[in-house]
Design goal:
The complex is a heterodimer of chains A (261) and B (272). Chain A is α+β, with helices and mostly antiparallel strands and 261 residues long. Chain A has five helices and 16 strands. The radius of gyration of chain A is 22 Å and the shape is globular. Chain B has seven helices and ten strands. The two termini of chain B are 22 Å apart. Classes of the chains: A alpha+beta (261), B alpha+beta (272). At the A-B interface, helix 2 of A face helix 2 and helix 3 of B. Chain A: This is Proteasome subunit beta.
Chain lengths: 261, 272
């Protein structure tokens, strides 16, 4: 059977692609409505987020890269944003889906503020709202392709949680997404303890980010660290980590094994 | 108030700017048996009088749990009250499910008030004939609200609605300034005393009233008859002999019942 060319049709209500697919009885072809609005694969992605609870609240680190497949295409993407007064959201995965989530949360925070009644959404509420959104999208087979980290402080209590694209959600003292789970969490399991000072917390995060920089192909050396305390959110200016490449083994890597790399 | 040509539809204004159907709905609240609410900084107590249709039947429930942190007492058309309680429970649980956090009372009463307002502006609806005393706890402390059939809502330190509620209100007006700092026990005692005021002469027994409490670290729950009776015993004189006491009680119960019957001739059976 030969393939017929794809035909595009644009409806006033919404866009949809119509693929004409030949079927067995030759003459007639059936139009299958391919739902191009469903997320099938991610395109522009952010890599790991690492976050820890510390003495005054939560610290979160991420780099500023947006990869297009294996190309490190965008180098100025802020993957951590403040939500309302009490929360900080970091995302890895599809950047456009992250932006969509920010729009949902913007509406949520707006409506919360419009009540103007002394109640406000805390990090726990935002985390659970996001869990519901992610899980519901997963059930419709149209996920938001992100792993989200939600940290915050309200009434003196720190909160740190994570939601994945399939709606798995939990809280912990330290969380990481993507490669961070494999490279950063072991470090955190050994070295995290309660009531870290700000300096120690940043040092610990930088240690994790350095390992990710060495080992994660989609990491770039331009990172931000965000802090959230009772006072509010501050996201640092982007900066780079010092790296060291003068290990002896790198000098003559093929010594003893000619032809290898 | 008297019948006039502007009171047939809820969507008809009178020349003096009144909606008579809404006001008539508020009259229905006054016919129901009394419900009382009081709050301190940390607790809210809701109490009601147990009125039964006849000696043969049980009394109607007037206090409902909406959530662990919210309760509601109603007066007026109990059927309307039940439906609105179901709405409140639904709103509360949906919020809990989405945000894993208790719904702030203030937001619940606004939704309730908006729901009531709709019925005052549709020609094919009628206003809800029930007043609701909503007591609850949220981040900003304990609150008590009164939701009116008109769609208005007000916040109170203490309030009473239903028949003979004026007597209770007078009692509460004398005491309300101290409620904020009251202990839980004092608050309960004041609630039962306020209920006693509405009974006007009838001996107060624990079977005649329902009392519920909620507070910080205390989810909404009803007090059992024993606890209520214990509080009553602290201020009511104990009957001297059981037989005499029994007779005296029977007489006392019969008298108000007759008075109640005569006075409440206009009370429709659906109102409690």
């Amino acid at each position: 059977m030969f393939l017929l060319p794809v035909s595009f049709s644009i409806n006033a209500d919404y866009f949809f692609l119509q693929f004409t697919i030949p079927i067995d009885n030759g003459d007639s072809v059936k139009n299958a409505e391919a739902d191009s609005q469903r997320t099938l694969y991610p395109y522009v992605t952010g890599t790991s987020i690492v976050a820890i609870k510390y003495k005054d609240g939560v610290l979160m680190a991420s780099d500023m890269g947006g990869s297009y497949g294996s190309t490190l295409r965008y180098k100025n993407i802020e993957r951590m944003k403040a939500i309302g007064k009490h929360s900080l959201l970091g995302a890895s995965g599809e950047i456009s889906d992250f932006q969509e989530i920010l729009r949902y949360l913007d509406e949520l925070v707006l409506n919360d503020n419009m009540w103007d009644d002394g109640n406000s959404l805390g990090p726990k509420e935002v985390h659970n709202y996001l869990t519901r959104v992610m899980y519901n999208r997963r059930n419709k087979f149209n996920p938001l392709w992100n792993t989200l980290v939600l940290g915050g402080v309200k009434n003196g209590e720190s909160y740190l949680g994570m939601v994945s694209m399939i709606g798995v959600s939990f809280e912990d003292n330290h969380v990481a997404t993507g490669f961070g789970n494999h490279l950063a969490r072991p470090i955190l399991r050994d070295e995290w303890h309660a009531d870290l000072s700000f300096e120690d917390g940043v040092k610990l995060l930088e240690k994790c980010m350095r390992v990710l920089l060495y080992r994660d192909r989609s990491a770039i050396n331009k990172l931000q660290i965000a802090k959230i305390t009772e006072e509010g959110v501050t996201v640092s200016q982007p900066y780079s980590l010092k790296t060291f490449w003068e290990f002896k083994a790198f000098n003559n890597p093929t010594a003893g094994a000619e032809g290898s790399w | 108030m008297f019948r006039n040509q502007y009171d047939t539809d809820v969507t008809t204004w009178s020349p003096t700017g009144r909606l008579f159907q809404v006001e008539y709905a508020m009259e229905a609240v006054k016919q129901g048996s009394a419900a009382i609410g009081l709050r301190s900084r940390s607790h809210v107590v809701l109490a009601s009088v147990n009125k039964a249709q006849s000696e043969l039947s049980s009394h109607q429930r007037k206090i409902f749990k909406v959530d662990d942190h919210i309760g509601v007492a109603i007066a007026g058309l109990t059927a309307d009250g039940r439906v609105l309680s179901r709405y409140m429970r639904s709103e509360s649980i949906n919020h809990s499910f989405t945000y894993e956090s208790p719904l702030p009372v203030g937001r619940l009463v606004v939704r309730l008030a908006d729901k009531a307002q709709v019925c005052t502006q549709r020609s094919w609806k009628r206003p809800y004939g029930v007043g609701l005393l909503v007591g609850g706890l949220d981040e900003s402390g304990a609150h008590l609200y009164y939701n009116c059939p008109s769609g208005n809502y007000f916040e109170y330190q203490a309030f009473a609605i239903g028949s003979r509620s004026q007597a209770a209100k007078t009692y509460l007006e004398r005491r309300f300034k101290s409620f904020n700092e009251s202990s839980r026990e004092d608050l309960i005692k004041d609630a039962i005393l306020a209920i006693r005021e509405t009974l006007q002469g009838e001996t107060l027994k624990s079977s005649l009233c329902t009392v519920s409490v909620l507070g910080v670290d205390e989810p909404f729950h009803f007090l059992d008859q024993e606890s209520i009776q214990k509080v009553i015993d602290t201020f009511e004189k104990v009957p001297e002999e059981e037989e005499d006491g029994g007779e005296a009680e029977a007489e006392a119960a019969a008298a108000p019942a007759e008075q109640g019957g005569a006075g409440d001739q206009d009370v429709a059976p659906m109102e409690m």
